[in-house]
Amino acid sequence: MIELKNIEKYYSNKGVKNYVLRHVSTTIKKGEFVSIMGPSGAGKSTLLNILGMLEEPTYGTYEFLGEDVTTLNERKRIELYRNHIGFVFQAYHLIDEMTVYENIEAPLLYKKIGGSERTSRIANLLDRFNIVAKKDLFPNQLSGGQQQLVGIARALAAQPSVILADEPTGNLQSAQAEEIMQLFQKLNQEDGITIIQVTHSEKNATYGNRILHIADGVIKDDVQLTGAKAI
Ligand SMILES: Nc1ncnc2c1ncn2[C@@H]1O[C@H](COP(=O)(O)OP(=O)(O)OP(=O)(O)O)[C@@H](O)[C@H]1O
């Protein structure tokens, strides 16, 4: 599903290249649940942003579902993103002026999904995540855990094949964090959604089936966890 070949990313500062990622090559199969771990500044978010097509690598190739993302024009890249990728952020990134319902609806409007299909998808998500009673509230009227549920519902609305999550529980208390991780595990095991998360938490990583350890922009270790369920 995802193939990275020799990905490099650097930022130039006064003629000096500061490498953030070096020689990153890996393959991620459909149905995997991968955790990217490593020290602060290791390049984890940069890698996730490249996977999510939010940033471009300086060198190397990135194939997503057989398409070479690095050579696609912007319109095609956005289409690929909208059709297949759901992004979940640590700080939720909900739109404050929109209700829960409207936040979940936003990506469906971008995709020009028709009215009745929108209504039914949103109703399903609200129901599944137990937030029907919250649908007319605004993000600042919700707890952190509830906001993250809305963030995940929004990411799922467009029925993506991959969820990319950058520290999805970083702002949450442990009980809420556990609820979110259990939800990810369910989405992965029952719905077959591929999940790639950046996390600092060893415990969160145990919900997945593979850990990529990166340090100084290099993959140092690639560990399969027992009970792996790669499809
Ligand atoms: N736009 C930029 N310009 C220059 N340097 C950048 C830029 N974006 C990121 N970096 C540098 O790239 C390195 C990796 O950043 P990244 O956010 O990927 O690390 P991380 O592993 O996710 O760290 P953390 O765990 O602290 O979030 C850092 O040293 C950062 O300063």
TrEMBL record:
Q: Name one GO molecular function term.
A: transmembrane transporter activity
The protein here is known as ABC transporter ATP-binding protein
> What residues form the membrane-spanning segments?
none
Lineage here is:
Bacteria, Pseudomonadati, Bacteroidota, Sphingobacteriia, Sphingobacteriales
One Pfam family, short name please? ABC_tran
What SUPFAM superfamilies does UniProt report for this protein, alphabetically?
P-loop containing nucleoside triphosphate hydrolases
Q: Which residues form the ABC transporter domain?
A: 2-231
**Family affiliation:** Belongs to the ABC transporter superfamily. Macrolide exporter (TC 3.A.1.122) family.
Superkingdom to which the source organism belongs: Bacteria
